[in-house]
Design goal:
Elements: E1 4-8, H1 21-32, H2 41-48, H3 56-70, H4 75-78, H5 82-93, H6 114-122, E2 125-130, H7 135-145, E3 153-154, H8 166-175, E4 184-188, H9 191-203, E5 209-214, H10 223-236, E6 240-242, H11 250-256
Parallel strand pairs: 1-2, 1-4, 2-3, 4-5, 5-6
Helix pairs in contact: 1-3, 1-5, 3-5, 9-10
Amino acid sequence: MTSAIIVFDIDGVIRDVGKSYRRAIADTVEKFTNGGYRPTMDDIDRLKSEGIWNNDWEGSRELTYRYWEKEGQERSSLNLNYQAIIDFFQSRYRGSDPKNWNGYITTEPLLVQIDYFNALSAQDITWGFFSGATRGSAEYVLKKRLGLKAPLLVAMEDAPGKPDPTGLFATVRQLEGESPSIPVLYAGDTVADMQTIIAARKVQPQRKWIGIGVLPPHVLEDSQRREAYATTLKEAGASLVLNAVKDLTAAQVQQVL
C-alpha cells in the first residue's frame, strides 16, 4: 500500500541546468539586448525568487525588457518578438538539429540515478514528475538519460505554469489510484515550486501537502549563497531543504510525515 506520493520537479532537481537552461537564458538576453547585458546566475536567481518566472522563455524576455527599461525605453515601444526569443533560446538549448539534439541539453549532469527511484518504489512510495520544461526536454532526461521506461509526467504543454497547482493535481490524480488521502511531497528548487504547494493546500486542505526544497548545484559551492537560497525556499513554504534530491530517502519521508 502506498505510504506517500513524491512529485518531482526536474530542472535543478533531477538534472543540473546551470550550464544549459540558465546558459541559454544568458545567451538569449545577451542577444536581444544587442550585447548590452548578460545576466549572471545571481541575476537569474533573483528573477526566479519572485515566484512567477518559472518559464525560461518568459524569464528571458522579462530580463530583456528590464534592461531596455533601464536604458530609458518603454516596453510598448520595444516590439520584442516572443517567438524569435523562443527560437533563439531553443537553438542554444536543444541545438541546431531538430531531430538529433546537439545543444546544451546533451551535457547536463544528472543529479540522481534510476536506482534511487527503484528504492522508493521498494518502500511503497509512489512517484512522478511535474515540470515546467517542455515534454520533449523532460522526456529526454527521464527516458533517454535516466532510463525510466514510462515515467508519469505532466509537462509544460499539459497544464498552466507554476505556481498554479493544476499540474500538480493532475500528476497526483494519476498516481493515487483509489487512495485520495495519501500525503503528497513536492520536491523543487524554486520559489514557484514551494508556492505551488501553498496553493495546493488552499484548494485541497483535506490532503497533507509538503514542500521539499532542493538546492540547485550552482549554490552549493558557497556557504553564504547556499544558506541564503535555503532561507528563500523556507520563506516560500518549504518544510525541509535538502542539498540533493537523493537525500529524500524513504526514511526521510517518514520523518517528515
